[in-house]
Amino acid sequence: MPITLRNTTQYIAQFVVRKGGQVIARLPGIEPNAQMVVPTEGTYQVTAMTIIDGNTYTSAPMDVTGAVSFLAQVLQVREQGTYEFDVVQGYSTRPDQMQFQKTTLAPVTFTIDKDGVPMQAVVVPDSFTMQTLDISDTFYVYAVVNGVTTATVSTTNLNAQVTATSDTSTLEQGYFTLEIG
Questions:
Q1: Per residue of the chain (181 residues), what is the pLDDT tens digit?
Q2: Fewest CB atoms within 10 A around its CB: which of 35, 36, 77, 134?
Q3: 60 with 30, same domain?
Q4: What's the pTM value of the predicted model, to 2 decimals?
Q5: Range of the domain at 65
Q6: Could you write out the three-class secondary structure of the chain?
Q7: What does the pLDDT read at residue 144?
Q8: b/e string for 122-147 if b means 16 or more Cβ within 10 A?
Q9: What is the pLDDT of residue 63?
Q10: Is residue 59 located within the same domain as residue 119?
Q11: Do both 11 and 78 map to the same domain?
């Protein structure tokens, strides 16, 4: 199900859409009097990165859809005298969350990409402490129009239409707003 983003202002509108806390779209700009359709579901790629003894370790990308959990850990490879950075993907304990944990000493950064574009990062600073990312079906949208960031609007409608408009009221001349339809 898609959310439609429309721009009726005279400027380019750059929209950001979150599903719960997860950024699902960060658009470079929609031209005036144009629109774009953003799918509300999809596959994302998650990679994890940490630094151990001055060396950077990065996991292979993992395809993700929906509620999952990740555990980043460092394993000893005695035969080689090295470490192996491993991320185990499992089931989330909550259907509306992505969950991130680590057992390493150093912080681990989990990066969430969509089609090769980094959307956001979740940093887990402490071992055995779970960081969560809400992926519930409430969508939050804001736009940047002519250097001005609109107020964030929210909807639970999976087929919502969000329109950036120029606010022409006497009190708000020169401002922009988002309308949900």
A1: 799 999 999 999 999 999 999 999 988 899 999 999 998 888 899 999 999 889 899 999 999 988 999 999 989 889 988 888 999 999 999 999 999 999 999 999 999 998 888 899 999 999 989 999 999 989 999 999 999 899 999 999 989 999 999 877 766 566 899 999 8
A2: 77
A3: no
A4: 0.85
A5: 44-133
A6: CEEEEEECCCCCEEEEEEECCEEEEECCCECCCEEEEEECCCCEEEEEEEEECCEEEECCCEEECCCEEEEEEEEEECCCCEEEEEEEEEECCCCCEEEEEECCCCCEEEEEEECCEEEEEEEECCCCCCEEEECCCCEEEEEEECCEECCCEEECCCCCEEEEEEECCCCCCCEEEEEEC
A7: 95
A8: bebeeeeeebbbebeeebebbbbbee
A9: 94
A10: yes
A11: no
Backbone angles phi, psi at 132, to 5 degrees: -120, 155
What pLDDT digit, counting tens, does each position of 46-90 carry? 999 999 889 899 999 999 988 999 999 989 889 988 888 999 999
User: Are 60 and 105 in a shared domain?
Assistant: yes
Considering the domain architecture, whether residues 52 and 122 belong to the same structural domain is answered as yes
Q: How far apart are CA 59 and CA 180, in angstroms?
A: 39
57 and 120 both lie in a single domain: yes
Q: Are residues 52 and 22 in the same domain?
A: no
